[in-house]
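ok new one. same drill as before - structure tokens go in, u give me an amino acid for every spot. 264 of them this time. try not to just spam alanines like last time pls lmao
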């Protein structure tokens, strides 16, 4: 069953099992400012607590069963608890939402991955389970971005939605190797769901802008390794020129913001 493969794949990717800890530790990243004080480390007063809400819809029930079997959310919570000191408990889990979505609720201190999101991603990617898993990982980290902004009351000088995309891309890119495939899958996801309808009032950047942002950051993280993104014509040269600076800036910002809360 595709869902089992995806969920198992997510766990196997090792997305959250300690990898973001090293990627966000200032001394581990070449572009991070060296010798700069990270200040006091925050006291760890809470944990990410996992949950699976009971689904009523048969399709969702099957996804719930597969998710429970894969222990996906336990793995995610465990990885995050190894990486982050929290001021309080934060719930992370899966639920039935009646829409294909994932979201973080500041009021409830709860990150929810909807069962319906799996079915939607399978449809978008025409059952390509690698791409489904990759884009799902990106989405989960995007929501984690919202969560840490709220939990740590991080200062923001731009749109939170863009910052959340930045964190998702950074964590995955920093993981190296296959994780970059998740970044490409995410870019393809936003490209595929782009309808051409331009909702300028939406709090998110337009889907096509998210595509180019994500590709820009991936290219910028290692222009040699990802040169084909530009040479193939997917990312315009005019944008690509400043992508290394863009990536360094977001890496520096997120690393500094999270330093007090990343366990070392
Ligand atoms: Zn968001």
């Amino acid at each position: 069953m595709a869902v089992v493969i995806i969920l198992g794949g997510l766990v196997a990717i090792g997305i959250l099992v300690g990898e973001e800890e090293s990627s966000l530790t200032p001394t581990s990243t070449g572009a991070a400012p060296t010798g700069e004080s990270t200040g006091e480390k925050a006291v760890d007063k809470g944990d990410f607590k996992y949950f699976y809400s009971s689904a009523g819809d048969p399709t969702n029930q099957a996804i719930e069963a597969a998710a429970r079997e894969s222990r996906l959310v336990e793995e995610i919570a465990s990885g995050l608890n190894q990486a982050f000191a929290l001021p309080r408990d934060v719930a992370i889990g899966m639920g039935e939402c009646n829409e294909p979505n994932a979201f973080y609720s500041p009021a409830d201190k709860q990150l929810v991955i909807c069962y319906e999101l799996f079915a939607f991603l399978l449809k978008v990617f025409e059952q390509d389970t690698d791409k489904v898993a990759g884009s799902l990982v990106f989405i989960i980290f995007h929501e984690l971005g919202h969560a840490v902004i709220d939990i740590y009351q991080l200062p923001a000088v731009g749109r939170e939605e863009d910052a959340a995309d930045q964190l998702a891309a950074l964590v995955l890119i920093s993981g190296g190797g296959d994780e970059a495939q998740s970044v490409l899958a995410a870019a393809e996801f936003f490209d595929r769901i782009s309808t051409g309808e331009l909702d300028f009032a939406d709090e998110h950047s337009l889907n096509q802008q998210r595509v180019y942002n994500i590709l820009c950051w991936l290219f910028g993280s290692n222009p040699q390794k990802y040169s084909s993104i530009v040479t193939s014509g997917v990312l315009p040269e005019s944008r690509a020129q400043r992508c290394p600076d863009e990536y360094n800036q977001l890496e520096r910002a997120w690393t500094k913001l999270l330093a007090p809360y990343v366990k070392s």
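Confidence is low (pLDDT under 50) at residues 16-23, 25-37. and btw The beta strands are 48-52, 90-95, 102-105, 110-114.
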